[in-house]
Structure formats: C-alpha cells, structure tokens
Write a structure and sequence with these properties.
Blueprint (H helix, E strand, L loop, with lengths): L1 E2 L3 H12 L9 H7 L2 H12 L6 E5 L2 E2 L8 H9 L3 E3 L6 E3 L31
Parallel strand pairs: 2-5
Antiparallel strand pairs: 1-4, 2-3, 4-5
This protein binds zinc ion.
Zinc ion binds next to loops.
Length: 126
C-alpha cells in the first residue's frame, strides 16, 4: 500500500515525530492542513494502536520499525516512487530517507569474457 506524499509532506511527519528543535511549528493541526486525509488517518491510527513510532525509515532494505527485511522488489519500487509506503509486516508508514534517484540506473555492465586458456591435460595429438 502506498500513500501519495511529497517529500515536503514526509518531512513534516518526520519533524512532527522527532520534536526536533525548530519543529515546534509542526503541530497536529499543521498535519491536518498539509497531509492527505488517508495518510494522516493511518498515522493517527498507528499511534492509537501502539505502533510507535508510526513513521519509520526504510533502511538497508529493511523496515526500521520491525527490522524485518522487505522483499527486494518492494524496496526498489519504494525507492523509485516518492511517497509513503506501508510495511507489510508491522503496517507502519515507511519513508525513504535518501532523495529518490531521478536518473535511470546505468545498464548493468557485462562481465569481461574470461581469457581463453589453452587446453591442458589433454592427450597430445598424434
Ligand atoms: Zn515493519
């Protein structure tokens, strides 16, 4: 499951959670104004049921809330698509801490062909 959210909106959630200096302006009211309803409802619900923190980073391919490794496909999809994702294990909201990569990945390089070696061990030909 995925919620559409801009990096700025994700930043608001992170600041609301972290209570960092300078984040005093990020109140729940701010979130109500700035976030899509579905995302905020999920955020509030997670706090209510005790899944705290409700928003965690997706780090090294794993949810940093439950520390369960996510499927590679999930992680790479999440990396490509901006927004907030849901951990399939603990239902927490997941965000990608690093900026999404805009440019396509370079094509995989083919491994160099192994150098031909003369056959050894064979019987000498007559
Ligand atoms: Zn999780």
């Amino acid at each position: 499951m995925k919620f559409d959210a801009t990096p700025a909106q994700v930043g608001l959630l992170v600041r609301h959670l972290a209570h960092l200096p300078g984040s005093q302006g990020v109140t729940h009211e701010t979130l109500e104004h700035e976030l899509p309803r579905g995302l905020l409802e999920r955020y509030d619900w997670l706090q209510k049921v005790g899944h705290t923190p409700p928003l965690v980073a997706l780090e090294h391919g794993a949810c940093s809330g439950c520390h369960i490794r996510l499927p590679t496909m999930f992680a790479s999809h999440a990396r490509l698509r901006a927004g907030v994702h849901t951990c399939p294990h603990c239902q927490r909201l997941l965000y990608i801490p690093e900026a999404p990569v805009e440019e396509p990945a370079p094509p995989p390089q083919k491994p160099p062909k192994p150098a031909r070696r003369p056959r050894v061990g064979g019987r000498p030909r007559a």
